[in-house]
Amino acid sequence: MSLALARKYRPKTFADVAVQSHVAATLKGAIALGRVAHAYLLCGPRGVGKTTLARVLAMALNCERRGDPALGGEPCGECASCRRIWSGASSLDVVEIDAASNRGVDDARELRERAMYAPSGDDRYKVYIVDEAHMLTREAWNALLKILEEPPPRVVFVFATTEPQKIAQSAAPVLSRVQRFDFKRIGPADIRARLERVLREEQVEANADALAMIARAADGSMRDALSLTDQVLAMGEGAIVPDRVRDALGLVAEDEFIAVLDLVAEHRAGDVFAVVARLADAGIDFGQFLTGFGDMVRALLAVTLGGKPPEVSERARAALEERKTAFTAGDLLRMLSIATELEPRFRKSSQQQLLLEAMLVRFALLDRTVSLEAVLRGLAGGPSGGADEPSIGPSSPRRASPPDAGSPPRNAERPRSDTPATDWRAVIRDADRAPAASTTPPSRAEPGVPAATASSSPQRSVESPRSARGETVSQALAGAPDLNHLVERWDDVVAVMRAAGKSVAATALEHAAPAAVNARGDVTLALDEANPIYEQAIETVKADLVSALRQWFPGVQRLLVRTPEGATTPPTRLTDEMVRSERIAVLRRKDPVLDAAIDALDLDLAD
Ligand SMILES: [Zn+2]
User: Fold this and answer.
1) In whole angstroms, what is the distance from residue 271 CA to residue 505 CA?
2) pTM beyond 0.70, yes or no
3) What 3-state DSSP class applies to 98?
């Protein structure tokens, strides 16, 4: 294959332009009726056919058979002019300009001068295709506006942009002089259908699941889908099968997502760290993992609700069917909303692994939140848990199993599954001697908070929308902030500090993120490197920082700063609770005993 697929199969007619038929039909009609506008603005995501359609328009306007009623406004695709324009060979009458590289006023002036020249023949049109038009400067737009006010005959401008709102900001008057079309994102089904056609032409066999994977990875862009297919074809021979796609594109195997779902379903929070470490070792992009995992949770939600997820392989669909009772729809919705909220922050974070671990631990403990609430309610003298909740009375020596009866017993297949309950205290004692942990797995990092103080973290109640009766507890706990919300707001807090002129501190704070929060509202920041300058800088603005945080989280009391391994914060700044949660953090890092620590929490609750 000498030509890239995207080039080789570039549409030659309006009818060929996938999905954008609403635009193509209008343009075709305009040409058939001889009512072509002087300027068009084509808006839409990348790779959906904007410049392709602009070229087809240029072909149709300059086709040697234009006006032939049999064509109905389409280009013939065969004449010398059509072929030249289609192939991108230099044509006097079609000028393509990439505004991203020619954005200055000089180019606009040149454009204006050139536009003054008539097309090369009486029956021809001069078509300017300006790609990435939002990159043009205000001055360039002003120059263009003059042309558009008095357009020369048979000159057509086509502006293509992914960001029309920027044009509205810098060149609003232009918008009233162009005919605007909005292009649709291309759905996976349309991408698959096109790939099937192209590969049939290429006489390459392709498995439906494999094409679905490419379509998903292309994320709405036909151009990307075709170049990803090029990439797959370049690696290996024969039929296109899922393994080949995965290897060529470096995708995360669906099995990985299923395995993580199982881990969450079985409450194996301690296994999160090993799994994430393995993904890191395999060089998996965490951002891609988060997106893919979100897709899988959405697919499971569809299955759980009795629907059919369209965008997963048959194999994954079967695997999800087997797990349709593992989660309630409410659990899945909560997981989806947590993952969605995390995403924007995640992309920019330098601590993706930590954030991913925190999220998965949080998922794995979702059911526990309900159990804990039941306990708290019991302590508060309210009615005990409802029928759909595990009944854990304050007097139970050990907590009951999680409510999903379908999952295997906890601690099954785990190294220290035989650890007796009474050993937890020894585990905690041993942890006393361990050095302070460098990383506290955030969301449940404060399980050491004794329930008797009942001022326990509000996350638990916030995350337990299932029970209306938890309200009194929720209200009582409404003070302290939720770690995830803190993490999401962190950029804003840093921006406030920067705006207040604390730029050194703001820079230091960009190297930190909230890693834990306890019931009293003490927030622990984790620095991503042991840097005394950062530490010092944060130290000097602590009071301001607390005020900034309180704008969003009135419950914030104090700030603690934690540095990575090698540097420790002075113990005087740690409360007993913090020491406890650090201890638990050490345990969590030591994967095999993690659940033991969590069980220890429940023992404490019961005491
Ligand atoms: Zn033609």
Assistant:
1) 36
2) no
3) strand
